[in-house]
Specification:
There is one protein chain. With 54 residues, this protein is mostly helical. The protein has helices at 9-26, 35-49. Helix content is 61%, strand content 0%. Helix 1 (9-26) runs antiparallel to helix 2 (35-49).
Length: 54
């Protein structure tokens, strides 16, 4: 049986959360909520860059 391919799920999650944070920051009424997905994206990015398994 071949070895499983490595996945990049946290990288994709960081990208999606970054996009959501950007879109929320553009909407004037939702501007105050844009920090949450942006912070979560940074956390996911840092976990991926440190080489933690996804």
């Amino acid at each position: 049986m071949p070895a499983p391919q490595p996945r990049n799920g946290l990288g994709v999650a960081a990208m999606v959360l970054g996009i959501v944070g950007t879109v929320l920051s553009l909407a004037v009424t939702l501007f105050r909520l844009s920090w949450l997905p942006a912070v979560l994206a940074l956390i996911c990015k840092n976990v991926v860059w440190t080489g933690a398994p996804s």
